[in-house]
Structures are given as C-alpha cells and as structure tokens.
C-alpha cells in the first residue's frame, strides 16, 4: 500500500513515485486512509508537503471514522503538519469526525500549546464548538487535566 511505502521509505521514494504516478496520492485503504493521513499521523513533514503539492484537496479526505489528516496530526502533536494542512485547505479547521470532534478537540487531549494556538488562529470559532456529547475543547482538556491547555483556552475571549 502506498501509505506504508510513503512512511517507511521517506520523501525521496515518495517524490519519485508521485512523479511517475501522481494518482497514487489519492489511493485509500479499507478504512479510507490516504498516504497523507498516514504521513500526518506520523509527523512526516516532507511527505505531507509532497502530497499536498500533488493535490491540496487530499486534506479534505476523511477516514471511515470521519477523522481527517488534520485530526490525526493534531492528536499526535505535529504542529508543522497542522500548519501545512491548514495552509493547503483552511476550511478543514471546522471539519468534525463521527463523534463531532474537531482537530481542536484532538489537540485538547494533548499538551502542545502551539498546536492549540495554530488551530485557534485558523478559526477562533473552534473554541466553543461542542462535540456530539456537548463537550468543547475546554471540557476535554479539563477531563484530561491538561492545565496549560485549560489556562490557554480560558484566556481567550
């Protein structure tokens, strides 16, 4: 599968494959996972950039659970990947998964303030968006005892 090759062999191999067969960027596995989602999850910034250069709309493709590459990058704390995805497709900041959670909900589970800041800079309305259970990012950060995230979210208007 292309996504495994992309992450195991790095950017040079991906670049050569995409030059020969750019349509590989759009392939998905059984759970609708793209190479972009795999690279974003693992923080492979060079591979993310290469894939976004082929087609920035790749960022819009969600896995079968509704999570986009932005959700995955945010959950795993990959700030540069999050910034690249938002630059390629700003509208994905508001995308929700099947639980109604945005990438900010994912970031609130972690400890990376820069990540929270990057997401809120992209769309400040994320702050008050509830998931399917009525939880905002602040609720999630509170449940996870992410004190720095809680403080940052409470500082915002």
UniProtKB/TrEMBL annotation:
KW Repeat (keyword) present: yes
Alphabetically ordered keywords of this record: ANK repeat, Repeat
Keyword Chaperone attributed: no
Coiled-coil spans in chain: none
InterPro entries linked: Ankyrin_rpt, Ankyrin_rpt-contain_sf
Highest rank taxon of the organism: Eukaryota
Pfam families: Ank_2
Record's GO cellular component terms: plasma membrane
ANK repeat residue intervals: 31-63, 65-97, 99-120, 133-157
Protein name: Ankyrin repeat-containing protein
Organism of origin: Aegilops tauschii subsp. strangulata
